[in-house]
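Quick one, probably user error.
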């Protein structure tokens, strides 16, 4: 199987130039599915910390790069929305966050903020043994007590070291959200109304914001913590 991906056909969320070269690195198997950006692309094309795949492999073999608290060794490891990318030796920490237009961007955060990551619940099931399992937007699973009050479209914050849930944000009117896809990607506001569509149609969400707000489909919004914004209502810088 080829290890390369044509730039013109990469997902819109990938932060790469499409016309500079024909090919780029193909994402490996892992979280985020096809939307995941290979780690080497972020290291080389976005941050400029390495010039080649060979240099990226050397850095990864030294366990100097952490993703969600874990050292990674695969330069093709998919990186996606809300992942935490840490460079402890540099004292640099980033959260993957969508910018306007839907491209994934690296937002600098402090070390404390880098200790946990946000996840949107996309499915809730009962697995053998009667344990409740939550599936997050990146495909990872978190098991919780059977009496825990978590619902699909809620968001949780998972500690990167203990892998335990440390915060829970319900999906309901009045909650702070960001759009992560569509024409309003990267825009933050509060849920004003949730319109449940009967049948197979998508539920829609009306979001109020300082610039007038917007309406989008439920799939495109994620409930976030107030720590994601600064006093001006923008994403953390």
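Nope, works fine. Designed sequence:
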């Amino acid at each position: 199987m080829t290890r390369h991906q044509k730039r013109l056909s990469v997902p819109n969320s990938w932060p790469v130039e499409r016309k500079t070269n024909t090919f780029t690195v193909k994402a490996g198997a892992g979280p985020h599915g096809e939307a995941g950006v290979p780690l080497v692309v972020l290291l080389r094309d976005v941050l400029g910390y390495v010039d080649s795949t060979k240099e990226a492999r050397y850095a990864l073999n030294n366990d100097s790069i952490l993703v969600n608290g874990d050292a990674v060794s695969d330069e093709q490891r998919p990186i996606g929305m809300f992942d935490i990318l840490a460079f402890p030796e540099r004292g640099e920490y980033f959260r993957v966050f969508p910018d306007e237009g839907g491209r994934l961007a690296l937002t600098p955060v402090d070390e404390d903020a880098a200790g946990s990551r946000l996840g949107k619940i996309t499915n809730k099931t009962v697995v053998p043994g009667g344990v409740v399992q939550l599936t997050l937007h990146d495909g990872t699973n978190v098991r919780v007590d059977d009496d825990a009050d978590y619902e699909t479209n809620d968001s949780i914050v998972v500690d990167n070291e203990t892998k335990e849930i440390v915060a829970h944000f319900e999906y309901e009117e009045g909650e702070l959200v960001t759009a992560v896809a569509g024409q309003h990607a990267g825009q933050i506001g509060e849920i004003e109304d949730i319109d449940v569509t009967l049948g197979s149609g998508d539920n829609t969400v009306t979001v109020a914001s300082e610039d007038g707000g917007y309406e989008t489909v439920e799939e495109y919004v994620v409930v976030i913590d107030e720590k994601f914004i600064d006093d001006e209502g923008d994403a953390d810088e």
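The longest helix spans residues 53-61.
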